[in-house]
Amino acid sequence: MRNVFVSSRLDIGGLNPAALGCKVYGFERDGELVALCYAGSNIVPIGDDEEALDGFAGRFGPHRFSQSIMGAADAVMGLHRRLVARWGAEWSAVRELRAHQPLMVIEGQSPLAPDLRVQPARMEFFDAYFHAAVRMHTEEVGVSPLDPSHGYESFVMGLIRSGRAFAGYNEDSGRVWFKADIGCAHGRVCQIQGVWIDPELRGRGLSAPAMAQVVRLCRGTFPVVSLYVNDFNTRARRLYEHVGFSTVDELATILY
Predict the structure, then answer these.
(1) Residues 97-123: pLDDT tens digits?
(2) Do 34 and 60 meet the contact criterion of CB atoms below 8 Å apart?
(3) Residue 99's CB: how many other CB atoms inside 10 A?
């Protein structure tokens, strides 16, 4: 459950760096694999073995190549401490540290009545969905995702074309008022990300039925629906609990 992101990437590219787009380091003890570290634009350590974390930190060098370290809280914080102690400078220049992010899961349908207006996003409404996605990312991460290569635009197009983007669309105003995406999936499990509701509509009780519908749509393919949230986001945690999610683990994210 905590490693669905890396599992989903390995499903696509295997362990071939050319196909995967990055390296994956492994750490063995007595012929047994005890830890992994996905080393792409996001670094994701798997396993909190102390000796393995020492080894991964030694591999990376003083020049940071990543945008974040994310994954199980103990492994993320342990690797971060080692990188700062060993290399300092670039690895210690953290933009934001989110040390406690509850990982939440629902394995059945939500007890709430779903808002059936939320449906898979369609390319004909791409501009409205993309505008909402940019607003969500900027609000959540603190920086705009837009860049000259139009990479974020291509990413959002891919979500819509693969059926992994969900939206509540107001045909009168031409605006998306709610959105959520399947960020990654592996086997029976998918992980929701990018949940957003128009600020003008917050506090009206619309988010919970919309999320209940997202759960309903996801469970057509994935029996287990997961997501993670910042511990200080009390409103979001209460919302997800109301929808039927329960906390099963703790993740962490370090943003550069």
Answers:
(1) 999 999 999 999 999 999 999 999 999
(2) no
(3) 15
Cα–Cα distance for residue pair 212/116, rounded to 1 Å: 9
> Under a CB-based contact definition with an 8 Å cutoff, are residues 172 and 164 in contact?
no
Q: What is the rounded CA–CA span in Å between residue 100 and residue 226? A: 16
- Residue 35 pLDDT class (50, 70, 90 cuts): very high
7: its two tokens:
């599992």
The two three-digit tokens of residue 234, written as one number: 């009390």
- Is the pTM of the predicted complex or chain greater than 0.85? yes
User: Hey, how many other C-beta atoms are within 10 angstroms of the C-beta on 232?
Assistant: 10
Q: b/e string for 60-89 if b means 16 or more Cβ within 10 A?
A: beeebebebbbbbbebbbbbbebbbeebee
Segment 3-24 mean pLDDT: 91
- Residue 185's nearest CA partner among 147, 146, 135, 220 is 220
Question: Could you give the angle at which helices 207-218 and 234-243 cross, rounded to 10 degrees?
Answer: 50
**What Å distances lie between residue 118 and 114, 169, 203, 217, CA to CA?**
9, 7, 18, 9
